[in-house]
Write a structure and sequence with these properties.
By secondary structure, the chain is an alpha/beta fold. The protein is about 40% helix and about 20% strand. The chain has a 6-stranded parallel beta sheet with strand order 1-4-3-2-5-6, sandwiched between helices. It has a 3-stranded antiparallel beta sheet with strand order 7-8-9. The model has no long low-confidence stretch (mean pLDDT about 100).
């Protein structure tokens, strides 16, 4: 497994791989990997000759009072996981390499960034799209794999790729959950034992709403109310949002007549956790 830390070297390597006819897959990450990331890597491994995983905690997507400085980092642990999963190249650039002195350009996707996490974390998705565009330009992949747990991020990246004409296939990989239903996340590392037990209220609230939907309920407000009651019963939980949105536009839905995503963000202790489930009509 090769580790590349400079963008110029990454571009030269990607050019050589493409020239030799190799199909490149990129899995962008912020590190502190878990089995959810490993599932993305395995998905990429099945569809490409060369798998590149980027490891970069991106300062542009963190707000001034968020957890950039405390975000969990462990390169050696990540490297062992990646090598075991069959990664060929780790691209782990420094902040100064990605954003050199005088950097002043950003990539902005407008409408699909306005709802959900875009409301709670202003500027977050501008940071995401800017860094992903730069990662695409450095690694030059034929395809890139993103997890459905960050559903809004997935939609935003799909929109950016379509609008800017990136010749890159975006592959969505399903959420990977712990045995009790909690969606895997690097931020789960913030949870103490009591908070970890409380965190299952996220997935439980979604599954309860899904059951109502399966039984025929199509009024979004009633499904949201059921999820809200389940989470509110957990003293350690503080709701950021619970919404049901169109899977493409991410606009709020009143009555579910087409596929929708039910997305939630909840604070458990200091950890802000997100989860979602797609309601297929």
């Amino acid at each position: 497994m090769e580790v590349i830390s400079h963008s110029n070297q990454m571009r030269r390597t990607a050019d050589a791989l493409r020239a030799s006819g190799k199909k490149i897959a990129l899995v962008p990450t912020m590190g502190y990997l878990h089995d959810g990331h490993v599932s993305l890597i395995r998905c990429a491994r099945k569809q490409a000759d060369v798998v590149i995983v980027s490891l970069f905690v991106n300062p542009l997507q963190f707000g001034p009072n968020e957890d950039f400085t405390t975000y969990p980092r462990d390169f050696d642990r990540d490297a062992a996981l990646m090598e075991g999963a069959g990664v060929d190249i780790v691209f782990a650039p420094m902040v100064e390499d990605m954003y050199p002195p005088g950097f002043q350009t950003s990539v902005v996707v407008h409408h699909v960034t306005k709802n959900l996490c875009g409301l709670s974390r202003p500027g977050h998705f501008e940071g995401v799209t800017t860094v992903v565009a730069k990662l695409f330009l450095c690694t030059k992949p034929h395809l890139a794999v993103f997890g459905e747990k960050d559903f809004q991020q997935l939609v935003v990246i799909q929109r950016m790729v379509k609008d800017l004409g990136f010749d890159i296939q975006i592959i969505a990989a399903p959420i990977v959950r712990e045995p009790d239903g909690l969606a895997m996340s690097s931020r789960n590392a913030y949870l103490n034992l009591e908070e970890r037990k409380a965190a299952v209220c996220l997935s439980q609230s979604l599954f309860e709403a899904q059951k109502l939907f399966t039984d025929g309920q199509r009024t979004a407000a009633l499904l949201i109310d059921a999820a809200r009651k389940r989470i509110a019963a957990e003293p350690l939980a503080r709701i950021d949002y619970i919404k049901i949105c169109d899977t493409e536009t991410l606009e709020d839905i009143v009555t579910i007549t087409r596929d929708a995503v039910m997305a939630i963000a909840v604070f458990i202790g200091k950890a802000r956790l997100i989860d979602n489930i797609v309601l297929h009509v």
